[in-house]
Amino acid sequence: MNRICVIGCGYVGLVSGVGLAEFHNEILCTDTDSVRIENLKKMIMPFSEPGLLKLVKKNSDMGRLSFVNDIKPMLINCDAVMIAVQTPQSVDGSADLSYLMVAASEIAKHIKKAVVVIIKSTVPIGTAKKVKKLINSILADRDVGFSVEVVSNPEFLQEGSAVDTFLNPDRIVLGCKDGGVASKLMEEIYTIPAAAGVPIIKCSNETAETIKYASNAFLAMKISYINQMALLCEKTGADIKTVAKALGSDARINPKFLNPGPGYGGSCFPKDTRALVKMGEIHGLDLSMIRAAYESNAVHKTILAEKAVRILKENGGKTLAVWGLSFKAGSSDMRNSPVLDILPVIIKGGIKIKAYDPEAMDGAKIHLAKYMDDIELCKTQEDTLSNSDALMILTEWECFKKANLTETAFRLNKKILLDYRNIYDAAEAEKTGFLYYGVGR
Questions:
Q1: Taking the model in full, what pTM does it have?
Q2: Could you give the residue numbers annotated as active site?
């Protein structure tokens, strides 16, 4: 059993740590946030993610997963150290590596033997080489007589199904020298998924780092593309759901990420597309397609917000019920949620908001704090409908899909439905008395 220290108990670090424990590795997780560590010891999760608590409890009880405050003792006898700290977006769009470099320095100061350093965080191309240089430079100053190898092992987690996507990945990318000590250790760490037939892609550090950015940028472009097609469908009278179904039926295209909506959000796509464009600029390249994707995403949210204001005002509406605040169903994450761009435009248009989300209400108090004079956070989805003129769907939670449309329409003053996730059948909604407006329909 390999002993791995995971630095960072945020979204990536915690899910990766418990996933590696499930793969029969001994995992010790640490974080600079001591309150978070103490809560994790008590089985209090820092965010909502299906199946996470159950897996943390299981592996903790089996002795394969533990949480510690002090990083120094845990570095002494580990075989590998995984860095899973945040790399937030800087003002110029580049990734801020300060947290990563601090973690690398701590590793170099306290390890007593050669270990494999695994970078799980999303980092600019060339970061692994810089980390290796920094750590080995400090080790040389310590005159310890050993050095480290650095592996780029990017994550491809999908919030809302992160545990499942870690345990059953489409592929595992290992940026390390094939046949070396690091390569052999990584093969041992991922023995279980490899035995199940999961492809292991071995490549250079730079290639692995590029794969992560290229994957996220491609998916962001795909979402922006289908949203632009949806706007075209609204102008021409075509139906985007049928268009998307036909596109997805083409084996070369694939149906995933072809669902039109209010735009992409979350912690990855907005940050990673901008970071990739910045990397292109550094190398004298204009990655125009990727830049167009995030510019289009911003415009799309404004278009949908202005559409909502126009429809309410045309029908004498003054109050809008909003179902969904997190950036996607299954997650409490409000980072870069479309809500954060859409609701301010609607409020500026003179419309009051009554909002509800099954998981993101605490986050809403923080992320929407400056708009609270115009937003009422409700205890249930039904409470939002009282004295509201219209309903807007911004997140595709199951509880919203299962809502009784007849009862929902009855509760609304103007019976206007802005289905910005296209979760309802337009004809069925109109039968219940709704004025129905989807995206691209």
A1: 0.91
A2: 268
